[in-house]
Amino acid sequence: MAEITVFDHDAVLAAISPADAVDAVRDAFVQHASGDWTMPPKVYLEARPNGDFRAMPAKGGGLAILKWITSFPGNQRFGLPVVMGVVCVSSAENGEPLALVDARAVTALRTGAVAAIAAQELAREDSRTVGIVGCGLHGSWAARCLAAVEYGPGVCSDPDPDAAGALAGELGWEAGSREDALACDVVTCVTPGHEPVVRTGDLRPGLHLNMLGADGPGKAEAETEAVVRCRLFCDEWTQASHGGELTGAVEAGLVTREEVTELGAVLTGAAPGRRSEAEVTLFDSTGLAIQDLAICHALMRAHRQGAVDARSVRL
Ligand SMILES: NC(=O)c1ccc[n+]([C@@H]2O[C@H](COP(=O)([O-])OP(=O)(O)OC[C@H]3O[C@@H](n4cnc5c(N)ncnc54)[C@H](O)[C@@H]3O)[C@@H](O)[C@H]2O)c1
Fold first, then answer.
1. Taking the model in full, what pTM does it have?
2. Backbone angles phi, psi at 20, to 5 degrees
3. Which residue, 92, 22, 66, 7, is CA-closest to 303?
4. CA distance 224 to 254
5. Would you say the CB of residue 286 lies under 6 angstroms from ligand 1?
6. What does the pLDDT look like over 58-97, one tens digit per residue?
7. What are the two backbone dihedrals, phi and then psi, of residue 85, each rounded to the nearest 5 degrees?
8. Can you list the domains of the chain with their CATH numbers?
9. What is the whole-number distance in angstroms between the Cα of residue 310 and the centre of ligand 1?
């Protein structure tokens, strides 16, 4: 019988720093773009009326994972998180189950990490200041990862002053208005995507936008007209065109596949990133299983080095 290790939320966050997460996720995009890591499309299982489950598989570097994660938007009334789940980690050599990992911690790290990588690749070289619009769970991790790769200081903006104040206090940044955040060099939006927080009038030459909040159908954080005015990048075209920030513009026939570059292609040098100082670049993150796999690799490495406190269970 296989013995598996169980990594809880705190163990994952203690084992992997934001800087480690950035390195691991960067490598994942390169491996995937090079064809070494594989990732079938995510599968949605509706659980109406309250939410849905998502199954996200990926394989590479000797591991195979399945992230099994929820979105149950009304869960607060039960005192439960909206997003919960587990990542099953197996050997890709012989199929042996190796670990079960708290999916919230993995998601937090990998989502924050991609914001930092997109900024490093696509923002102007002299970019420093960071605007965070939406300072909840994933906005906070994006800010931590950006700070870990030496962006900042930043402006934290959120209708909930406690959320903005807590994040600003943690990082030594400032809380401010949406306009203050949008005036920064690298703007990262991580709101629920119910209303536009980036409007056409906000675009300035040289701005870089990370759009993380719109990760499913019906969500958007920018006006379609603003999206169309930007040079466009995404994590993966199929996801971004069906359930991401780009979806509205794609469905309106205003943006085609040829106009959007995947981040992995920029990282491998197969496609150019920013082409001028003046361009406004927009990166649409929808969240990929290869990012989760990257964090699992980092976790298993840390565990092998004895740097993680975790229990094992015989199946
Ligand atoms: N791209 C990805 O990989 C990825 C990963 C995880 C979550 N998400 C998405 O990111 C979004 C945020 O998730 P979360 O877990 O951080 O949620 P959360 O509830 O913890 O945080 C959302 C924050 O946005 C704030 N907010 C709401 N409306 C706002 C507005 N108009 N302007 C500024 N702030 C506003 C809220 O007050 C809250 O603090 C969700 O849509 C989620 O599905 C994307």
1. 0.97
2. -60, -40
3. 7
4. 9
5. yes
6. 999 999 999 999 989 899 899 999 899 999 999 999 999 9
7. 160, -165
8. 3-106+290-314 (3.30.1780.10), 114-286 (3.40.50.720)
9. 30
